[in-house]
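REQUEST
  id: r-88c1
  op: predict_structure
  target: beta-N-acetylhexosaminidase
  payload:
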Amino acid sequence: MSLCSRRSHVYPNKATISQIRFVPMMMWPLTPARVLMGLVAVSTVIQQSSSQTTTQDTVNYAAANLEVTAIVRTNHIIGQQFQVQLQLKNRGTNRILDDPNWRIYFTMRQGSSLTQREFTENGLRINRSKGCFFVISKNPGANPPFNGLMPNENSTITMVLRGLSVFRYDIDNNFVMTARNLYPRTINSTTDKNLGFVFLDPVNRTDDYSTRTPYDRFIGSQGYADLRGLGESMVLPRPKTLVTPEMEAMASMIAPPRMPPPARQTVVDLSENQIKVQFDTSISNVFKAYFKEQFLSIDGVTPSQLTEVNTPAGPGLYVSVELTADPTMTADGYRLVINGTAPNRNYNITRLSANTETGLCNGVQTIKSLAGVFNVIPIVNIDDDADTKRRMVKLDVTKNFIPVPHLQKFLDFMHMYKYNELVLVFGSDDAMRISFNNEINDFPELELFGSNYCNGKNIPKCNPNYYSGATDFSTASSGIYTTEDIKNLVEYAYRKNINLVPRVNIIGSLRSAKKASHLRFKRLESIDKTSADRFHLMSNEPSMASPPGSCYNDGVLDPCSPSTINFAFAVIDYFKSIYSVAGVPFTAFHAGGDGFTKFFGQFASCQAMGYNQAASLNYILNQLQTKLSDVTLMVHEHAVLDINTGTCLEKSTRVDLAKLIVEFTDMAPGLMEDWNLTSEQKQFLLREVRPYNESDPNDVPDVDRRFSGTKKGIAPWSKCYDCANYGYKTVLSPDSFFDFSNPYELDFNEPATHKPDGFYIIDLGRLMDFEPYNIHINMGTASSGATYLPYRFAEIFKTPTLMARENIVGMQASLDMPLVRNEYLLEYNSLRFIMAAEKMWNRGEFENLLKAEDSSTLKNMTLGQMRTAIRQSEYVDIINTMGYKELGRLDKLGITYRIPKLEAHIDNRMLAGQKPPYPVIAKSDLPNIPVEYRRYNGAGDNSTAWSALFRVDPATGARVGGLFVPFPYGGSYQMRTTNPPIDPFVQPVGPRKGETYYFEASPKNYAPKEIPPPLREGTCMPIMEPWSTNFDTVTDDKWRIVLDNIDRRITEDIEFRRTRQANLTQSMIRFNALNRRNENVNNVLENIMRQLQEGVNITALPMSNELKYIYEADKVLHETRDRLQEAKMIRWEREYQECLVPRNRGNGAPNNGAPNRQGRAMAG
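RESPONSE
  id: r-88c1
  status: 200
  body:
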């Protein structure tokens, strides 16, 4: 076959032929070398062009058999970049990716942060696509080219991004394979909702910013007292006042009564008593049904036990439920009195009273909490009320659809901890989860963005890869909440005393609805132009930069367009009708608001009306409030912020502040470059703290140093106070404390995301520290990880004090739903939600004591110490109740909370003169979390069984067991935490295991890392410098010497005690002979210790006193030993100094710091 005939066979169309560049022969003289080059070039083109055409079958096969692995290499210390290496491997039996048109799309949190336009490697190319998408494809100019993957063959490509990536979840699952005009297919190996295909590069597995070892957690632990049982408050959220008989008894010890109190019953067993309930005649049947439902949910309580009565009679538990008119209680308050039996009655009495049935519901939840896991309630008096009116949670179900049964389970959890409002985001850029398609609206296109990941064959039109239509939940769903679904949710929430607030992001970007509206317009344009225009949300948009965290800038709704108003009204009418059918009051609607609102004044429709940005916001707020009438309008802070003033809109007759609630989330320092500080302001903020020189009359403490330059305006994180003082009703939802997409700890495996401006470590301790009425004191940490002195912010920015506390009407915790791909990840944050509920219900006594804007409070040492002590006491109370009761309640309900992670170290007891082996101390940041361990014999060896580190002895109730290891090396172990047992003598309900950690019994895990100076003899370590030991540099030879020294010290101590006892006994004999007494030396020594503890000056007593006589004799013995020890120390230090000087040992070799064994022997 001729070359021409082959070419005509290979190049069937002009597009393929055009790939070859023909050079006239007169310009390219033929030589043997050039002929060979030409044949190679043609051969290469033939090879590239002969690959098969991409078909749906080839896409399907590749998506099923391609194994994708992502390796993340972080860089936290130097530079602000990180790498992601993507490895592609063929696990099938046929060649894949050999066709030219395939594409792999995926998304990451760092949407637009590639350090260069594209990256190429191994014939592959990676670059940005639209929105948050990245795309991998063949690099058409590569030499050698990428020719696909044969079975078991792999290839890699690496990209470099700006910023940091510190969490596995910064990469999204569900990578997608597609080709032009073909349907996309999810790559099977990337579907794992827990990102099992994403790994941390080995170079980062030992740095403090990527992984947390048990020892790291021990070092960073706050520390707490394990009370071995419930905290004093017993209930979470903690009641305002709670008094038990034990507390009354303790009070009586301080002020004893004239007659001893009679013995009293302390608990009532609900499962063994008839429960007789008398309801006030004003109580509704709805509450009666609720009361019965809640009591029957207590284990052991049966329908036959629960009866309604008119008067107490017969043995059992008599419960009186009544409505009162107590002016000291809010609608949330209640009073609960549980009394035991008495001599004149054979039944227990419980009285529950409140001003409203809402308060009664809160009281019922307290009874259930008191019953805990053993169904026994204590004799107790409780007066309780909420400090925050609206206690809210926000879930965005547009990112990942959550089926109705799981939302109902979450509502049950919220009710347990007295939350009363759930904001559900039904509409955002990602999806519209509602469908109000009917004969009036005719809008079936909305469902495309709720039920489908991709709306067609064009992948950039798809939603981000974390998006799902509930396929990862155990309850399947279409991804759309039907009218019946929402009605059921509204009713269910209402029965739980929770108001469900629907949210659709009308004020800002709503890309899903906007794109769907254009599909609707195209369908109806030729049929009914008026109907087509009604909801057509497309408009002439101004040029807009995407705010941080946004994938698109083409979804913003025109605030002044009639179509936007029509759509908003239709959405409101839809929800109004559902609440009406459900028989539930429609009290609030959330219209959203985002960073795009700063562009509102640039829309042509608003300019045509003469509106700037502030007036445009006023216009749409007025339209929404007019439609809502008496229904409260809720918005995000961006919906009321005037870009010209940096704070809330001026009061206007167009907006009724009484019916408007604003949610504030930006309540912390972000990135310094966003503050527009002058060099003078930066210098003042960042300068080092100079020690205060009290002897210098011109010096002042750092907290009193003033900034003399120009102040900036309102601090960005202070807008909430400024707006509240101005009259806006506000809800505090600080991202820096209540956004649970932030990590619990800095660990690559934590379900969390790194946002464009950073992240916060939000553990239970940080939640505890939040002060809603004193936020300036909480401004010490920025999202970048930088730390600041809050009082210096008060010098640079205006930091308004909250004057109108009544306008802080609520607090809200939220969860970034891209993380929530299944029910486990939804419930993972349960412990943080419990702590947030506590912060919403109660103002801690430690709050508002120190103020960043008032230096006098910061200088008050007594005030600071008191704040620390109160805060720690409250924290210990909370976490003990959480560990010893709440975790058991969650386990019984099947809630998969985050099992607290392991912190461990080896207790270095050589400081106390104790001989090895030494104990491994292992626990978590909550008490009552069991720890298991087993010997680790190498990867893949699971032959050793797990054992409990400690167990409870059924006979004594004492903890027994433990792990003791040789010093300094004692092998390797695997350790893990588990969920706690409900009963300490039995296994946990549904045992769950925490993460497994490898723990080496080696010097790196000892604490404290110190060898006492007397044990350093002969080791060539410094003698006169305590706390100078570097465990990591101690050699095996030196450890052996230290062990020898421990043995010697123990022997010396035993010998000293024997000699001391003998000498003091002789001294006592002499004293008794001189003074004709008969004293016992051991009794005298005990009396000396007691007198010293009481502050008695024994040296002032006469020598005729036995205490003084023996004390002085003992003092001489100790002083003699101290002088001998001091002489030894001086000699050892001299030997240490000799170790530092290299010297000739006869063979010309230097000392090299080796221990002087001869010197050590002489010193002994």
